[in-house]
From TrEMBL:
Stretches the record annotates as Disordered: 747-790
Protein name: histidine kinase
Biased composition (Low complexity): 760-778
Coiled-coil positions: 150-177
Organism of derivation: Pseudosporangium ferrugineum
Segments traversing the membrane: 7-27, 33-52, 59-76, 82-99, 104-123, 129-147, 394-412, 418-437, 444-465, 471-488, 495-518, 530-558
Pfam families: HATPase_c, HisKA_3
Keyword entries, A-Z: ATP-binding, Coiled coil, Kinase, Membrane, Nucleotide-binding, Phosphoprotein, Transferase, Transmembrane, Transmembrane helix, Two-component regulatory system
Reactions mediated catalytically: ATP + protein L-histidine = ADP + protein N-phospho-L-histidine
Domain of life: Bacteria
PANTHER family the record matches: NITRATE/NITRITE SENSOR PROTEIN NARX-RELATED, NITRATE_NITRITE SENSOR PROTEIN NARQ
GO MF annotations, alphabetized: ATP binding; phosphorelay sensor kinase activity; protein dimerization activity
InterPro entries: HATPase_C_sf, HATPase_dom, His_kinase_dom, Sensor_HK_TwoCompSys, Sig_transdc_His_kin_sub3_dim/P
């Protein structure tokens, strides 16, 4: 909803002021001083002009309004500013919404002192001055609370918009992010396993003539490492299907990693007792693996020290340093790098919000230092801070005490004993005090309010409270209405909140009726009590029921509105997140297929050739596998990235892109048959996009042959994927639920019992086009466009 233009409210107040004064006196032909008219017009003009700037400069506007109204209050008749007098409320509301809490509190306090001072200067210092001052306090605190609540509403909407924008951004970057992560994983496998085979086998070939025993050792190493490489690649392929399956425990894994490099001739020591979380442990493991591999390439035989130290705040500092023993020049090691070593290590650190530095050591050698934070810092919130919720609760309590305060003031005027006044004030305050806990314990607050209603009949029956003051409890009936509102707004079981109305009416009406029984009319016959009570219950119950029902209805509607807003936000974020997972999953599936086709086969040949003793075949197969891995890395690195403003991103796909989607899967060797009935039908953007995403998600959930049937001829649209994909992890089901909930779709059984996705022809935010643009396409009217696998 758009904001109301800033000029509307000031203009309405100015118009009201001119109509009330001097307009009404002129219409009634009452004499009006020209000086008073000029003063009223000047105050109205200044106040109206100031309120036009209340959003840009709320605090100065409040000051100008207070000064202008003071001039009017002291220089004009009492009723002269009744039209523009609400300007201070508008100004205070603006301060509460736009300024910090401390500023808003001080401004409210200043306005209370100002208003009470104006009342005193005007001579309103009679016995009702305390009640008037109490009303001023309650009124301004309520305005402050409403303003702070509005500020929080704006903050919640801004936060929801930011979360949705972040989710959409994650979705738009999902494929790129997954490419970068996979590039690091692939590079680690390339560096650690395949490179070491080439290094050892090349060295054995060079000096095998003078040291034949190295050839046998190289063959054994190639056979053993080749099998380890194959197992690592198979684990990586499996990891592509379960991206969140990560090992933990950094210490033992680093020691195990170091032991593998010791077998290659490296002198590696691991020190430190830090025990970071899984994310930091995974990043540390990847950085150490890359650093040790670089040492193997460029400083073979060097002594390497790995140290993992926990810093204050849970951060971890990782240091990998070597003493600089260099590998002989001209070896194959220096030509095996893919150029991503330092970049990959730095990306791992920066992904956690950390930093990484690498460079020569002053005394010779090389050092890598990474600072890995434990996680986002948490900010402690002061326990005594006056929150918006607590401020609103105080305002509600003051509102509930406003009428009782007037009643107590009337008691003071009637020369009642001070003890009785104190008792009445304490009883009314105790009756309303539980409202401070209305958010946390609404049903308990209601029970206390209902039970305390019977205190007044008890006081009258005991002769403590004269029956002549039996009207006083009526001033506190607002507590019951506010308690009912709290139950409807915050109670745990909204469907049963209507019982709060019943409880209040069933308790309050008999309590007040009992007050009447205790002091019956003098001319009432004893046998007419029953009829009298019935008349009072009907006549008195109806006026009481109306505000109680209104309080329940407003609480229930506000609760439902906010729940729907949260649900819409949740569905939108869940949908964006689910599609990000689907797009990342499609990228993983593509890379997994590339690994199977280009790397696994040649890696398996490394171990087979080593078992046969063919060192030349070992080198050829290892280098071929490295070339295939580099090809995948280059493909991942060179994927087009989006511009900073998103201009480089591909537009959101629609049903018209289904043939391209099927072709992409077929290019990966999958059999996909696509059948579309009613192709070319014009649909709303949400439905068009959602239908495409449903098919995309279902195709990403399996790798077997499938038939996709899309029926666009009716309403709802029908989508079937036969057979439905296996979903052991539940990711497909989660994404499907999010997408269907976002557009009001459903998953129902078709005529043959198989699952069928149904989407409405129009959805929230998307309306089907009409007119010439919606004319049937050449394959509409029931024709089926069938695309068979090529």
């Amino acid at each position: 909803m758009e904001r109301i233009p800033v000029w509307v409210l000031p203009v309405l107040l100015a118009f009201e002021q001119l109509m009330v004064w001097p307009g009404m006196p002129w219409l009634e032909q009452r004499p009006v001083s020209a000086l008073h008219v000029a003063t009223a017009l000047a105050v109205t003009a200044v106040t109206t002009a100031a309120l036009l700037w209340r959003r840009a400069a709320p605090l100065p506007v409040a000051g100008v309004v207070m000064v202008a109204l003071t001039v009017g209050d002291l220089g004009l008749p009492e009723e002269a500013l009744s039209g523009i007098s609400a300007a201070d409320v508008v100004a205070l509301f603006g301060v509460a919404v736009l300024c910090r809490q401390r500023t808003a509190l001080l401004t409210t306090l200043g306005m209370i002192v100002w208003q009470c001072g104006v009342m005193a200067v005007r001579g309103d210092l009679g016995s009702d001055y305390p009640a008037g001052a109490a009303l001023v306090v309650a009124f301004y605190v309520i305005v402050l609370a409403l303003g702070r609540a509005r500020r929080r509403w704006h903050a919640d909407r801004a936060r929801a918009a930011a979360e949705l924008a972040e989710a959409e951004d994650r979705r738009s970057r999902a494929a790129d992010t997954e490419r970068h992560r996979l590039a690091r994983e692939l590079h680690d496998v390339t560096a650690h396993h395949l490179t070491s085979i080439v290094v050892i086998a090349s060295a054995a070939q060079r000096i095998g003539g003078s040291r034949p025993e190295l050839v046998a050792e190289a063959r054994d190493f190639a056979a053993r490492t080749g099998r380890d490489t194959l197992a690592a690649l198979h684990r990586l392929v499996a990891l592509l299907q379960r991206p969140d399956d990560r090992p933990g425990a950094a210490g033992p894994r680093l020691e195990e990693l170091a032991e593998g490099f010791r077998k290659l001739g490296q002198r590696v020591t691991v020190t430190g007792t830090a025990a970071p979380g899984p994310a930091v442990a995974e990043a540390a493991h990847g950085i150490v693996r890359e650093a040790l591999t670089n040492t193997l390439r460029y400083a073979a035989g060097a002594a390497v020290a790995v140290h993992l130290e926990e810093l204050s705040g849970g951060a971890v500092q990782l240091t990998v340093s070597d003493d600089g023993a260099a590998a002989p020049e001209g070896t194959a090691a220096g030509r095996l790098g893919s150029g991503r070593g330092l970049t990959g290590m730095r990306e791992r650190a920066e992904a956690l919000g950390g930093t990484l530095e690498a460079g020569p050591r002053p005394g010779g050698g090389w050092q890598v230092t990474a600072l890995l934070p434990a996680g986002p810092a948490t900010v402690a919130v002061a326990g005594r801070r006056l929150t918006t919720d607590r401020l609103m609760d105080i305002a509600v309590l003051l509102l509930a005490l406003a009428m009782p305060a007037i009643g107590v003031a009337l008691l003071l005027d009637s020369e009642v004993a001070p003890g009785l006044v104190s008792l009445a004030a304490l009883t009314l305050t105790a009756h309303a005090a539980p409202l401070l806990w209305r958010r946390d314990r609404p049903w308990t607050v209601l029970a206390v309010a209902v039970a305390s209603t019977w205190v007044w009949p008890a006081l009258v029956a005991a002769g403590i409270l004269p029956i002549t003051h039996g009207w006083l409890p009526i001033t506190g009936l607002g507590v019951e209405a506010l308690a009912v509102h709290a139950v409807a707004r915050y109670g745990r079981r909204p469907a049963l909140s209507w019982l709060a109305m019943v409880a209040v009416l069933v308790s309050t009406i008999p309590a007040i009726t009992l007050m009447l029984v205790l002091d019956p009319p003098a001319d009432a016959a004893t046998d007419s009590y029953a009829g009298l009570l019935l008349v009072f219950a009907v006549i008195g119950g109806i006026p009481l029921a109306l505000p109680v029902f209104g309080a329940w209805l407003t609480g229930f509607l506000v609760r439902r509105r906010r729940a729907r807003a949260r649900l819409r936000q949740h569905h939108a974020v869940a949908a964006a997140t689910a599609w990000a997972l689907a797009e990342a999953g499609a990228e993983r599936a593509r890379v997994a297929e590339g690994l199977r086709a280009a790397v696994l086969r040649d890696t398996a040949r490394v171990a087979e050739a080593a078992d046969r003793g063919d060192l030349d075949e070992v080198l050829d197969s290892a280098r071929t596998a490295l070339d295939g891995m580099r090809g995948l890395l280059n493909d991942l690195r060179e994927a087009p990235a989006a511009d900073a403003d998103g201009a480089g991103r591909t537009p959101q796909p629609t049903l018209a892109a289904l043939p391209d989607l099927a072709d992409r899967w077929r290019a990966n060797g999958r059999s996909v048959t696509l059948e579309v009935a009613g192709a070319g039908r014009a649909l709303g953007p949400d439905v068009d996009l959602s239908a495409y995403r449903v098919v995309e998600l279902l195709l990403a959930g399996d790798t077997g042959a499938v038939t996709v049937r899309v029926d666009l001829t009716g309403d709802p649209l029908r989508i079937r994927v036969i057979p439905m994909p296996a979903d052991p992890g539940g990711e497909v089901a989660a994404g499907l639920r999010a997408r269907l909930a976002a557009v009001g779709g459903s998953l129902d059984p078709a005529a043959d019992g198989s699952p069928e996705v149904r989407l409405p022809a129009t959805a929230a935010g998307g309306t089907a086009r009409t007119g010439p643009a919606a004319a049937p396409g050449p394959q509409e009217n029931g024709e089926v466009a069938s695309s068979q696998p090529g």
